[in-house]
Amino acid sequence: MNPSNSAGQGNEVGRQPYSVPSIPLTDANAGANGEPTIGNLVKEATANASTLFRSEIALAKAELVGEAKKAGIGVGLLVVAAVMVLYSSFFFFFFLGEVLSEFMWRWAAFGVVFLLLIGASIGAALIGYLVFRRMHPPRKTIESVKEVRSVVPSGLGHSTTPDEKPALSHPGIPPARDLHKRD
Length: 183
Known about the structure:
Blueprint (H helix, E strand, L loop, with lengths): L37 H64 L4 H28 L5 H13 L32
Helix pairs in contact: 1-2
Keywords: Membrane, Transmembrane, Transmembrane helix
Protein name: Phage holin family protein
Pfam families: Phage_holin_3_6 (PF07332)
């Protein structure tokens, strides 16, 4: 090896001299006068907005996944608690029947507990019925759909009579085929 080439000039047998990659000293997005062009500014703004939007979506997903796991665990524990209360309610009603049997015949005490349960069930059903009866249709949504119908040009696929063909065509685009032709 030649000591003069030990600095890495690349002049060894059969090799081409290599060059070191350089960093440009001028902005690649700059125009002729050194300032960025409008196109490059728009491109950068669009790329930055897209990156920001994607980052925000990723952050929201990460936060929501963690919160959804916590909510799932919480709901599972609430279901377990509700099932345990449901099973223990049998023992409460049996206890209530035994307490009442100290003051009346045993069969009458359990009959009273049964009637209390039937009365509570009928009361809950009546309240549920009244809640459903007081519900109203989504008036704001219905009004907004009617407004959209008035804004959208007529004849976009909705005919006024069954014999009338809807106008699905655009004045500048010829139809590919007659979709409403009956054989």
